[in-house]
Specification:
Helices cover 61% and strands 17% of the residues. It is an alpha+beta fold and 103 residues long. The radius of gyration is 19 Å and the shape is rod-shaped.
Length: 103
């Protein structure tokens, strides 16, 4: 019975650490760009896009398909980097164990 209590206590500690980590991830940001920096995307550690910058010269070209491709490339790279940060932080808490859906 004591082992069960200890296990529950450790699970509660880990849960608190995960909640704190998730809050901290809101403050961490990554930036990705495409088109040689013509499109920049900033994403936080919770995979939320918080800023997109598009150089005005891209709008002058009026090539909508190219602009869409550049935006998609930058967004996908920013989200990938954000997931890496979340996985890294989660690994610090779980000791490398994979708990799907926690990060």
């Amino acid at each position: 019975m004591q082992n069960w209590k200890n296990l529950m206590k450790e699970a509660q500690k880990m849960q608190a650490k995960i909640a704190r980590m998730q809050e901290e991830l809101k403050e961490k940001t990554v930036e990705a760009s495409s088109g040689g920096g013509m499109v920049k995307v900033v994403c936080n550690g919770q995979q939320e896009i918080i800023d997109i910058e598009i150089e005005p010269e891209l709008l002058e070209e009026k090539d909508v398909e190219m602009l869409q491709d550049l935006i998609l490339a930058a967004v996908n790279e920013a989200l990938r980097r954000s997931r890496e940060i979340a996985e890294e932080e989660m690994g610090k808490i779980t000791g490398g164990l994979n708990f799907p859906g926690l990060a």
